[in-house]
Amino acid sequence: MTLSFHPEFNSAEFLALSKQKPEVTEAEMVQAVRTLLLGLGEDPDREGLKDTPKRVVKALQFLTKGYSESLDELLNGAVFTEDANEMVLVRDIDIFSSCEHHILPIIGRAHVAYIPNGKVIGLSKIARICEMYARRLQVQERLTLQIADALQGLLKPQGVAVVVEATHMCMVMRGVQKPGSWTVTSAMRGVFSEDARTREEFMNLVRHNSNFR
């Protein structure tokens, strides 16, 4: 079952759905990595590779730990009533994800802004939301939308804006082999979508000291 965040699902429902998958033991995962090594012409029993299957499984479990997290647990009540109506921007949030097509790294940063409508969120929670969705097998387009939709659903703000800029190792290390290429995606909600001046203010703030111009 392939799942992505949808506004119709609350965090508990999403987590429950994500658990409806075939049960695979860690030992089976380790054996699968051994099989891959054999297929590559390696000897998984030689000294340098003896514990590699276990290490690979542990690494993948960490890199995809976002599947076992939920927005409710992550927030821990850190949404507050506040009479604020000016833009809140958290810029340059480091993003480390894995592309779902090759399970190779996606490395970049996210810039997230919202305009409150009576509620604000703890600033560190914005970074944690980015982290939760990044720590899954992803495509950058979906990651950007998930961050925006999560904040929009949690706060019902006047608007949300998200820009993600990243380099994809599947383009750098293999395939077209184009180091230095960056992919930029954006998602605009509410006033950021409707008001060109508000959107331009956000984009000007993001462009400062950023990889994209």
What would your notes on this structure say?
This protein is an alpha+beta fold and 213 residues long. It folds into two domains: 11-63, Orthogonal Bundle (GTP Cyclohydrolase I, Chain A, domain 1); 77-207, GTP Cyclohydrolase I, domain 2, CATH 3.30.1130.10. It contains nine helices and seven strands. It has helices at 11-18, 26-39, 52-63, 71-75, 123-134, 140-155, 169-172, 191-194, 196-207; strands at residues 79-81, 88-99, 105-115, 119-121, 137-138, 159-168, 183-190. The strands form two sheets. It has a five-stranded mixed β-sheet with strand order 5-2-3-6-7, with helices on both faces. It is elongated and about 60 Å long.
Q: What does this entry show, briefly?
A:
By secondary structure, this protein is an alpha+beta fold. Helix content is 41%, strand content 23%.
Quick tags:
7 strands, GTP Cyclohydrolase I, domain 2, two-stranded antiparallel ribbon, GTP Cyclohydrolase I, Chain A, domain 1, alpha+beta, 213 residues
CATH class of the largest domain: Alpha Beta
Work out the strand percent: 15-25%
What's the number of helices? 9
CA-based gyration radius: 20 Å
Q: Which bin fits the share of residues in helices?
A: 40-55%
CATH architecture of the largest domain: 2-Layer Sandwich
Total individual domains: 2
**CATH topology group of the largest domain:** GTP Cyclohydrolase I, domain 2
Determine the structural class based on helices, strands and strand pairing: alpha+beta
Overall shape: it is elongated
Number of strands: 7
> In sequence order, what are the helices and strands, one letter per element?
HHHHEEEEHEHEHEHH
Q: Please, what is the average pLDDT?
A: 89
Spatially, the strands of the biggest sheet line up as: 5-2-3-6-7
Which blocks of ≥5 consecutive residues have pLDDT under 50? 1-11
Largest sheet: 5 strands, mixed
Roughly how many Å apart are the termini?
38 Å
**CATH superfamily annotation of the largest domain:** GTP cyclohydrolase I, C-terminal domain/NADPH-dependent 7-cyano-7-deazaguanine reductase, N-terminal domain
